[in-house]
Amino acid sequence: MLLLGLLLLTSALAGRRHGAAAESDLSSKFAFPGAKEQNGVQDPQHEKIITVTSNGSIHSPKFPHTYPRNTVLVWRLVAVDENVWIQLTFDERFGLEDPEDDICKYDFVEVEEPSDGTVLGRWCGSSSVPSRQISKGNQIRIRFVSDEYFPSQPGFCIHYTLLVPHHTEAPSPPSLPPSALPLDVLNNAVAGFSTVEELIRYLEPDRWQLDLEDLYRPTWQLLGKAYIHGRKSRVVDLNLLKEEVRLYSCTPRNFSVSLREELKRTDTIFWPLCLLVKRCGGNCACCHQNCNECQCIPTKVTKKYHEVLQLKPRSGVRGLHKSLTDVPLEHHEECDCFS
């Protein structure tokens, strides 16, 4: 009995020790990364300066395989030319430890603007690839942190490229604001942005958040954001017909049109620059003598409204007037061949 009692007591003590160890592990799991984030990430001795003269890339250790634990790496990319920007593009293969409550607490990669310490973004998990980032000047900083638990794969790889600010033939300062650029040059620059937020940040780097709020502030004017649809057309489902008929017959098809050309508005910039519309296209089989006289033309046209961002120079004032507006475009609903 005495031996049995000693065994039970030893087992109970071991269980309590195991529970305490588990509690300690959990505590370090949820508390340690925060301490490391404040100490290791900020430690200048971890920063590696990379002089950028051409395109290149940086990546997590062992990419695309599992990265190591307990790692803190900081890269500062510095372009030799002070009059260029640095663009960061994440590789499609991206995966770090998942966030907790949508917050990247443990393993993450972070991009910072060195000029003012602004954090452009922090990412982890693997559900989506981080968006493209562009520096304000010729430097940008990247941090990678992993704690002692649950490393993931493939990690990350960031490709960096140099962007030269747009310039005109006439001599101008390297920091020429977008609003001072010729419309054709600015139109080409606008084409490279994928979201309204990125575009507004480029146009108004000092007050882009206020401009974005003003842009989406409700007004009393009703915007026709929905398309205007006509009655359902009784057109034969061409997908059920033969492949050659579907490809070559006279039917409404998707065409990409330039808004500036379509609306004849060379004094205005639209974003997006182009939109898809339905226009008649395809071959006709109605020719008897001269086939050139046979044309595929619309028999039913509908005007649809598309919401776009409109940029116009202010009269006598420096800067651009920005507004969301509805532009009408013709869509061909039905087509037929006529000679």
In words, what does this structure look like?
The protein is α+β, with helices and mostly antiparallel strands. It has helices spanning 2-39, 183-190, 196-203, 208-215, 243-248, 259-262, and strands spanning 47-52, 56-59, 71-79, 85-90, 108-113, 118-123, 133-134, 139-146, 157-163, 251-258, 269-271, 274-281, 295-313, 320-338. The radius of gyration is 30 Å and the shape is globular.
Concise structural overview:
One of its GO terms (cellular component) is extracellular space. The chain is an alpha+beta fold and 339 residues long.
Q: What is the number of helices?
A: 6
Task: Give the distance, in angstroms, between the N- and C-terminal Cα atoms.
Answer: 110 Å
* Beta content: 25-35%
Q: Please, what is the CATH homologous superfamily of the largest domain?
A: Cystine-knot cytokines
Helicity level = 10-25%
Topology:
Blueprint (H helix, E strand, L loop, with lengths): L1 H38 L7 E6 L3 E4 L11 E9 L5 E6 L17 E6 L4 E6 L9 E2 L4 E8 L10 E7 L19 H8 L5 H8 L4 H8 L27 H6 L2 E8 H4 L6 E3 L2 E8 L13 E19 L6 E19 L1
Parallel strand pairs: 1-3
Antiparallel strand pairs: 2-9, 3-8, 4-7, 4-9, 5-6, 5-8, 10-12, 11-13, 13-14
Helix pairs in contact: 3-4
